[in-house]
Design a protein that fits this description.
Blueprint: H1 15-22, H2 29-42, H3 49-69, H4 75-87, H5 95-104, H6 109-126, H7 129-138, H8 144-155, H9 159-163, H10 167-176, H11 184-199, H12 205-217, H13 227-237, E1 244-248, E2 252-255, E3 265-272, E4 282-286, E5 297-303, E6 309-310, E7 323-327, E8 333-338, E9 349-357, E10 375-376, E11 380-384
Parallel strand pairs: 2-11
Antiparallel strand pairs: 1-3, 3-8, 4-7, 5-6, 5-9, 9-10, 9-11
């Protein structure tokens, strides 16, 4: 039987293309390639959009069987993987099919990342433990793009789904995290895990000491090792002071009427308060100071009368800067915070002011930092004078 690929789709879908889509695994490589091109080209006509979506779904449904039937490392398997990558632009493959292709092996890195993305979408939508487990196992994937994709989807899971993840899977994620790339998604996942471990009181000394040693051992992978955060969780659960302290020399600051742009200023000092393991208090120095402010600091204000938070953050541009890292010595960092560069002047009144710090993330203008693990100073009073 010979197949013809000519003619434009009419109405819902052209009969020849649809029949070919159903028979995708039985076609030779040239016919498969021609079919996929045909399906994708039909998208260009708005009248054939419904037909294109149907054909793409049919072809995508056939891909796992065709992929598994091709020899590992063969040109046919590589071609089918390319078809998957192209058709999957409209998320036409299901999570079960994506998992089947991942398990078959011999998948290129970009295709594997897309497959993890399909599974991540299913995990967020359904909350099924099956898909969450695939993502958890995926953060230990040696392919950086795959690990980052899994970390990103785990990070963005809705709170209701995240809170249903069992304790042992949270710990498994934390132990596997050392393979996650040092990127934004991995950074936020690490913070979310720390917050969860602390809130569920899973942070035993044995667990955190194991994680700290793993982190130190792979310092060149996620530099510097984020040991200060893990140590902070342990100290908080023990009811002891945090290893990193943000301190002021005053207990009240005034914001005068008609103040110039560089007033008021507040000096904050970073102190290593750890007595048992001061060598674990590692910080990044610089990296975000090529601009009008230090971006990893954030100012919070709460009104004296009702404790309500007042948010009025000033956006700015930052261009990085020279960076180093190492153990924090006492008073090694002292920074003058010019308040007008962080927040707009609030209405006259009295406010509790705190400074928050994150060692990796630029948080100065974020309105919600609920998923970030931050260090916070004790409050001082800010008195804002009227005009």
């Amino acid at each position: 039987m010979r197949y013809k690929f000519d003619g434009e789709p009419m109405g819902f879908a052209s009969l020849p293309t649809t029949l070919l889509a159903i028979g995708y695994p039985s076609l030779d490589a040239n016919q498969q390639d021609h079919l996929v091109n045909r399906v994708i080209r039909s998208k260009e006509s708005s009248a054939s959009m419904a037909g294109w979506q149907w054909q793409a779904r049919v072809v995508a449904a056939q891909l796992p069987r065709a992929y598994r039937g091709a020899a590992a490392g063969s040109a046919t398997r590589a071609q089918i993987a390319g078809h998957l990558e192209r058709i999957n632009g409209r998320w036409t493959i299901g999570a079960a099919q994506a998992e089947a292709i991942l398990k078959s092996g011999d998948v290129t890195d970009p295709v594997a990342a897309k497959l993890y993305g399909v599974i991540g979408t299913a995990a967020s939508r359904t909350g099924e433990a099956r898909w969450i487990d695939v993502l958890i196992d995926g953060i230990d994937d040696p392919r950086d793009v795959c690990a980052a994709t899994c970390a990103s989807h785990l990070t963005s899971l809705p709170d209701g789904v995240w809170n249903d993840i069992h304790d042992d899977r949270i710990i498994a994620m934390m132990k596997a995290f050392h393979a996650t790339p040092n990127g934004h998604s991995g950074l936020i996942l690490f913070d979310r895990l720390l917050i969860t471990i602390e809130s569920r009181r899973l942070a035993t000394p044995e667990l955190l000491n194991e994680l700290i040693e793993v982190s130190r051992a792979i310092q060149m992978r996620i530099w510097p090792p984020r040991t200060v955060e893990m140590l902070a969780v342990l100290r908080r659960l023990e009811g002891r002071p945090a290893p990193l302290q943000l301190k002021f020399d005053i207990d009240e600051l005034r914001w005068p009427a008609n103040a110039p742009a560089d007033v008021p200023a507040l000096k904050v000092r970073f102190a290593n308060a750890e007595t048992e393991r001061p060598d674990l208090v590692h910080l990044i120095f610089g990296g975000d100071n090529r601009g009008p402010r230090w971006e990893r600091l954030r100012i919070t204000l709460r009104r004296e009368e009702d404790g309500a938070e007042v948010q009025s953050y000033v956006p700015t541009n930052n261009f990085g800067g020279m960076m180093s890292w190492g153990q924090l010595k006492n008073d090694q960092i002292a920074y003058d915070i010019l308040l007008p560069r962080y927040i707009r002047k609030p209405p006259p009144g009295k406010y509790q002011l705190r400074v928050q710090y994150h060692d990796r993330q630029q948080i100065s203008a974020l309105t919600d930092i609920g998923r970030y693990f931050v260090f916070e100073s004790d409050p001082i009073w800010l008195v804002v004078e009227g005009e």
